[in-house]
Specification:
Distance between the termini: 25 Å
Structural class: mainly alpha
Largest sheet: none
Number of helices: 19
Radius of gyration: 23 Å
Oligomer: single chain
Strand content: under 5%
Shape: globular
Length: 450
């Protein structure tokens, strides 16, 4: 057993690592659609039953996020992380025992729902813990690493499914084992002190005082008075552009640019790598600016939302087409195709800088006992955005055409800028009010007997 938390950020790396299998598990469903349908129904023509699997897992994950966010702000967050990873891992391991036929579908449905609940319990508690393992001036970098972990987790799920072909039980076995390993690792650590990395509380905590404040019903008014909260949580629009692109990209690249699915996968790998690099670079830039101006993370996020519009316009304006024969090498060698891929990669590189600065801003403006709740509410809104994006894209493509549907990304990115302007205007005052409360509490904590 590791020794008690002593104001050092010991749990951060296990938390970030735990996100990998938790985000890999839901990514397995899409690549295995045909093998699963053949196993349960003998035909791959009707995809609707597995659509309901994805919907149920997402909906229950959203409900679990809200419950876990509030409860983790009242109790032990590491228990929610370890318990959520363990539940998701057990559900994935038990998938090995799922039989064929309709009864197998019912079992698979139930296990995916349980895995969704486990993931929902993990996420808000993990981000609340992460905020207590790094000081405010380094949170952008830390949340950048967590954003990369989520991205890599999704890619690992896709890659594992692709490598295993139709052996979906083996894929769930491997991911389940990784989730249980993450749960076991987290169980070795103790709960970090609430507010242990806040500059205004750290001195009192190091002297032996305890920060015992927990969220209550009365705090709802406090959350509402923190003006940036409203804009940060309601801004589910920021995930709609990415969800539209991912929903349409294979069809768009085939019909508009004659790029085959295999070549699109290679392109997406490069684009996701650019996105991971962007999360780290702009997370670090947000931290660097934050030491000079408390608005820096919000300003960085605003920049990362606005500039990709330029690259998206270039992408939509391209008329490049890949040759009929040859693989991805021949496609990239054709006129204009390399530039097309680079514009998408540049847009992703910049836009992924939003995530770490969004999480960092949310942590900076809220009191320690409110962060799990706010992350959970914001994550649920993001799930709503991810659900709306493909729906909007499908209607736009049906009513007009693919270019128009993809062009909707520009509209949502433009609207998203509007949501960040009031955050930039209010964030400095919100941080100052939060710090004033913490300073007052620190003085009271020092006076209390320990």
């Amino acid at each position: 057993m590791l020794r008690p938390y002593d104001a050092r950020p010991v749990p951060f790396l296990p938390l970030a690592a735990g996100l990998l299998p938790v985000f890999a598990e839901p990514a397995l469903l899409g690549p295995f659609l045909n093998p699963l349908l053949a196993e349960f129904f003998g035909s791959a023509r009707n995809v609707v039953p597995l659509g309901w699997v994805g919907f149920a897992a997402t909906a229950l994950s959203a409900l679990a996020m809200i419950a876990a966010g509030i409860l983790s702000d009242r109790g032990a967050r590491l228990r929610f992380c370890a318990g959520g990873a363990a539940l998701a891992g057990a559900a994935s391991l038990l998938t090995m025992l799922v039989p064929a036929g309709p009864s197998g579908y019912a079992a698979f449905f139930t296990l995916r729902a349980l895995a969704g609940i486990g993931a929902g319990a993990f996420v808000p508690a993990a981000f609340s813990l992460a905020a207590d393992t790094v000081e405010p001036g380094r949170r952008g970098t830390a949340f950048g690493l967590m954003s990369v972990a989520m991205l890599v987790g999704r890619l690992a799920g896709f890659g594992l499914a692709g490598a295993l072909g139709s052996r979906w039980r083996t894929a769930y076995l491997l991911v389940g084992a990784a989730e249980l390993a993450a749960a076991a690792l987290l169980a070795l650590f103790r709960e970090p002190a609430h507010g242990g990395r806040e500059e205004d509380l750290r001195g009192a905590i190091l002297e032996g005082a305890r920060y015992d404040f927990r969220i209550s019903r009365a705090d709802i008014a406090v959350l509402g008075r923190t003006r940036s909260n409203i804009w940060l949580v309601l801004n589910f629009i920021d995930v709609i552009p990415g969800s539209i692109v991912l929903f349409l990209i294979f069809k768009y690249m085939k019909e508009i640019h004659n790029l085959q699915a295999g070549s699109v996968n290679v392109m997406l790998l490069a684009v996701f790598a650019a996105g991971a690099a962007g999360a780290l670079v702009f997370g670090r830039l947000g931290d660097w600016g934050f030491r000079r101006d408390k608005r820096a993370k919000a300003l960085t996020a605003l920049f990362c939302n606005a500039v990709p519009i330029v690259f998206m316009v270039l992408f939509l304006a391209s008329r490049a087409r890949a040759p009929e024969a040859g693989g991805w090498q021949a496609a990239l060698a054709s006129p204009g195709m390399l530039g097309l891929v680079l514009t998408v990669a540049a847009a992703m590189f910049i836009n992924q800088g939003v995530n770490p600065n969004w999480y960092g801003t949310l942590a900076d403006i809220n009191l320690p006992e409110h962060r799990g709740t706010m992350v959970s509410l914001a994550s649920v809104m993001d799930l709503a955005g991810n659900a709306l994006g493909p729906l909007i894209a499908s209607y736009a493509a049906t009513l007009w055409d693919l270019r128009t549907a993809m062009g909707a990304v520009l509209v949502f990115w433009a609207v998203n800028i509007v949501f960040w302007i009031p955050v930039v205007g209010n964030v400095r005052g919100d941080i100052e009010r939060s710090r004033a409360v913490l300073k007052e509490r620190a003085a009271g904590m020092r006076k209390e007997p320990t």
